[in-house]
Amino acid sequence: MVRSFALIASAVLGAALATVPAMAEDTMLIIAHRGASAERPEHTLAAYELAIDQGADYIEPDLVATKDLVLVSRHENELSGTTDVAVREEFEDRRRDKTIDGQRVAGWFAEDFTLAELRTLRAKERIPSVRPANARFDGLYQVPTFAEIVKLVRAKEAATGKRIGLYPEIKHPEFLLQNAGIDMVDLLLRELRTLGITPADPVFIQSFEVGPLQRLSQRSDFKLVQLVAPISGPADEPAMRYAEMVTPTGLTEIAKYADAVGAHIGLILGPDGTATSLVADANVAGLTVHAWTVRPENEFLPPNLRTGNDPRGRGCGDVQLAALLEAAGVAGVFSDETLRGRDCSTP
C-alpha cells in the first residue's frame, strides 16, 4: 500500500524535528517569497523587512519596469491586483487590454506609468479572501523601487551583521522588449552596476524564460536560476515545454547557462510525499534545485497536510518544508512565512 504524503512527511519531520531549524540554516536557503507575504502585503518594504527580521537568507523581489525605466517590485506588471489603481479616477484612462505570454489581460500596467505616477498608488493585499489579516495594511505602503529594496537590505545588514541575499525575478522580459521596448536584462545589469552589486555578492537572478537568462550568462557572472512549472513552457520559446526541460537531457542544456533550477514543489515531491528524480538529475547536470513555494494556508497545501476545512486555516507547511529538505534534498526553498519555515515547532 502506498503511504500518504502526510505519513511520509510526518515521519521525516519526527526524525528531524529538533534539528530542522539548524539544518535549514546550515544546508538549505530560506528565500522569502515576495517578503513575508503570508503576514504583510507582498512586495512591500514592510514585507521584506519582516522576512529579514524572521531570519530569511534571501528576499525575492519580482521586478517590472516603469515607463521611465525604473525597476520596481510587483508580482505582475498589471497593477490592479496589488495596488489601488482601479479606484483612482485620475488613472481611469490608463486601463488597457494586453496579450501577455499568450493570455489576454485587462488592467493597468506599470510600463504605462512614470515612477512619479506610480508612487501615488498604495499597495494592497493580493489575496484578501485567503489572507484577510493582511488587508488591514492596505493603503499604508508605496510600490518600492529595486534601489530602495537594496537600501533596506544594506541597512539591515549593518544592523544585524548578517549578509542578506537578493533573489530578483525579471517578469515578462520578452513581452516588455517586444511591446514596450524595455530591455529588462540591460536595465537590471545597469541597475546592479549603479548600486555597486557584483557577482561576488549573494545574488540569484531568475526567470521563467530562457533567452534572457542566456543573455545574462553571456554578459555577467551572476548566479542564474531557470524557473520551471508543472505545465506549459517558456513564453519566449513556444515550442519548448518545461516537462522536457526537467529531463536529464533538458537539465544538461539548462546547465549551459544557469546555475540552478527553481522548480514547483509538485515536480520535486510526488503525491505520496516521496522525492522524484529531479534533484538527483539536476545535481548530476551540475545544477542545484530551489523549490517554490511553501505556503502556510490550507488553500495551498496538499489535502493530507491541511488542518480543518477553512481554506484560510494554517496547515502543515512546516511538514512540507521538512520533506523538501530531508526526502528531496533541495538546496533552497521559497517560503511565504519565514518564521514557520525556520522552526517546525512553532505553534
Automatic annotation (TrEMBL):
Pfam families: GDPD. It catalyses: a sn-glycero-3-phosphodiester + H2O = an alcohol + sn-glycerol 3-phosphate + H(+). Residues 28-345 form the GP-PDE domain. One of its GO terms (molecular function) is glycerophosphodiester phosphodiesterase activity. PROSITE patterns: GP_PDE. Its EC number is 3.1.4.46. It is an enzyme of class 3 (hydrolase). The keyword Signal applies. It comes from the Bacteria. Belongs to the glycerophosphoryl diester phosphodiesterase family. Keywords: Glycerol metabolism, Hydrolase, Signal. One of its GO terms (biological process) is glycerol metabolic process. This is glycerophosphodiester phosphodiesterase. Residues 1-24 form the signal peptide. GO terms for cellular component: periplasmic space. InterPro entries: GP_PDE_dom, PLC-like_Pdiesterase_TIM-brl.
